[in-house]
């Protein structure tokens, strides 16, 4: 908005007046598809990892502890209780190969960029032997996508179990499970931990230990409501847990809102997304204690609390067109892909890890620019090498006798001339190959430095093999806008027109 550095009180006055002030870099909102907020009359929010920003290390710790207890009760080795569960190992956007016990990171085209067997890095030869140049991840019975931060503990724990199967098969009663069986056991036990309250009861009892209370969230919701937007909550969490989390986030924050439910015109819990967008389940009204009230119904009334339901019934209750609804969520598949494909709603993706992503990119900006420059140089060198190789192939087909027909006076002179040209071409080709290797090595070293700043195992969630990762491509394809947290909307006007960068094909550049 301005190049002048404004004092904090002035910035707040401008924001309260619904005028825009430049957001800090880590809190920017990014646009993939033009979106005019002035045309959006309804904004819906998921809760977990959207309105509620979890402290990931704490969540992973209690999730793994609860799951390990259940695995040991199933007969897994007691050694799991003392195993080292590296909290930074898993990131969003990975793909689990359940058959081979491998965890993979794919590029935008679905090819394997890097991977681990358990927590052992796969060598280039292992990746080639197992996956060749195949596009992966589309066989549901074999591959499991890691689409949400809730899935990270199961990936971390699965890697530990794979290592234990390989190193200590004797610790398992009878035969050790296959990798696929182990993955399903981990999946079942962590699901059970969420259902039986092992995790959620801890969070409800001490939410500040597991959830970040964002001071900008209440005023963000208030700003949207004050601009005439109607808001709704649509979450898979059931009422007792949703109530505890939302009370922690919003109750008592602003005097004009008696409790958290007053921020929302419609509230739907236990929504069972993505089925909410594809099936026709009825809504069940609940009272403020979470008990059922009356028979199931197909539409909802403003100001009441419901469980279950379906997208068509909810939209009919809004009396709005699909493109007037913006849904904000964190789950690339359950929230964003399904809501965009099935409902036609506009989409905003909350990517909690984007905050660190942008901080690293700012701190390593010079290195990233160097990598990009060297990558372009490497492309030019590769093209030149291809030209020299083609020239060498052509020279190999020419004989000294051929030169005699062009006016070279004798055979010995023709042979000498041909040898001289071939030597010069070979020297240039060798020099270019050395240059290419040096450039490639430098790119590799610089890329490794940057990768370690993002994540020591996987690098950036958004990039792979000097290109966009599969996760990054999904963000680009399905999210109209994306940002690190809901309250970043506080920095923009409710009438903001988000304009995406112009797309370009390679031949346009």
Topology:
Elements: H1 8-16, E1 30-31, E2 35-36, E3 42-45, E4 53-54, H2 56-73, E5 95-97, E6 102-106, E7 112-117, E8 120-121, H3 124-131, E9 143-145, H4 152-167, H5 179-195, H6 200-205, E10 211-212, H7 217-226, E11 230-234, H8 239-250, E12 266-269, H9 275-278, E13 283-286, E14 305-308, H10 311-318, E15 325-329, H11 332-343, E16 346-350, H12 354-363, H13 365-397, H14 400-404, H15 411-454, E17 463-464, E18 467-468, H16 470-478, E19 481-483, E20 497-498
Parallel strand pairs: 3-11, 3-15, 11-12, 12-14, 15-16, 16-19
Antiparallel strand pairs: 1-19, 2-20, 4-10, 5-6, 5-9, 6-7, 7-8, 13-14, 17-18
Describe it.
43% of the residues lie in helices and 13% in strands. It has helices at 8-16, 56-73, 124-131, 152-167, 179-195, 200-205, 217-226, 239-250, 275-278, 311-318, 332-343, 354-363, 365-397, 400-404, 411-454, 470-478; strands at residues 30-31, 35-36, 42-45, 53-54, 95-97, 102-106, 112-117, 120-121, 143-145, 211-212, 230-234, 266-269, 283-286, 305-308, 325-329, 346-350, 463-464, 467-468, 481-483, 497-498. A nine-stranded mixed beta sheet has the order 1-19-16-15-3-11-12-14-13, with helices on both faces. Strands 8-7-6-5-9 form a five-stranded antiparallel beta sheet. A two-stranded antiparallel sheet has the order 2-20. Strand 11, helix 8 and strand 12 form a beta-alpha-beta unit. It is globular. The relative contact order is 0.15.
């Amino acid at each position: 908005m301005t190049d002048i550095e404004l004092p904090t009180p002035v910035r707040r006055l401008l924001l309260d007046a619904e005028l825009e002030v430049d957001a800090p870099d880590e809190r920017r909102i990014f646009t993939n598809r033009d979106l005019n907020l002035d045309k959006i009359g309804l904004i819906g929010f998921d809760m977990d990892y959207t309105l509620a920003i979890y402290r990931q290390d704490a969540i992973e710790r209690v999730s793994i502890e609860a799951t390990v207890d259940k695995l040991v009760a199933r007969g897994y080795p007691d050694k799991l209780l003392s195993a080292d569960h590296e909290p930074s190992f898993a990131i969003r956007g990975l793909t689990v190969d359940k058959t081979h016990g491998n965890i993979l990171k794919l590029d935008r085209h679905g090819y394997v960029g890097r991977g681990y067997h358990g927590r052992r890095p796969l060598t280039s030869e292992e990746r080639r032997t197992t996956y060749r140049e195949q596009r992966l991840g589309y066989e549901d019975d074999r591959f499991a996508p890691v689409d949400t931060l809730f899935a990270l503990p199961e990936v971390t724990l699965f890697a530990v179990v794979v290592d234990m199967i390989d190193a200590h098969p004797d610790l398992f009663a009878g035969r050790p499970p296959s990798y696929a069986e182990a993955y399903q056991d981990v999946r079942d036990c962590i699901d059970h931990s969420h259902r039986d309250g092992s995790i959620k009861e801890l969070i409800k009892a001490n939410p500040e230990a597991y959830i970040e209370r964002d001071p900008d969230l209440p005023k963000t919701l208030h700003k949207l409501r004050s601009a005439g937007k109607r808001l709704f909550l649509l979450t898979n969490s059931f009422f007792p847990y949703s109530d505890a989390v939302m009370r922690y986030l919003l109750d008592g924050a602003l005097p004009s809102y008696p409790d958290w439910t007053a921020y929302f015109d419609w509230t739907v819990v236990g929504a069972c997304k993505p089925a909410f967008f594809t099936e026709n389940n009825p809504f069940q009204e609940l009272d403020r204690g979470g008990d059922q009230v009356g028979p199931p119904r197909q539409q909802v009334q403003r100001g009441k609390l419901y469980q279950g339901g379906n997208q068509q019934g909810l939209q009919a209750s809004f009396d709005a067109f699909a493109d007037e609804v913006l849904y904000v969520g964190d789950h690339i598949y359950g929230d964003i892909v399904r809501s965009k494909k099935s409902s036609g709603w506009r989409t905003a993706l909350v990517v909690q890890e984007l905050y660190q992503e942008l901080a690293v990119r700012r701190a390593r900006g010079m290195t990233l620019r160097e990598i990009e420059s060297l990558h372009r140089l490497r492309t030019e060198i590769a093209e030149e090498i291809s030209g020299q190789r083609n020239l060498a192939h052509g020279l190999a087909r020419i004989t000294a006798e051929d030169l005699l027909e062009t006016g070279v006076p004798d055979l010995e002179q023709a042979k000498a001339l041909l040898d001289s040209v071939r030597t010069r071409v070979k020297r240039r080709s060798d020099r270019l190959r050395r240059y290419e290797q040096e450039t490639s090595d430098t790119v590799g070293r610089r890329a490794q430095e940057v990768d370690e700043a993002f994540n020591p195992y996987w690098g950036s969630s958004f990039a792979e093999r000097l290109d966009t990762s599969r996760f990054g491509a999904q963000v680009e394809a399905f999210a109209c806008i994306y940002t690190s947290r809901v309250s970043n909307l506080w920095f923009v006007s409710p009438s903001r027109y988000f304009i995406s960068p112009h797309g370009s094909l390679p031949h346009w550049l």
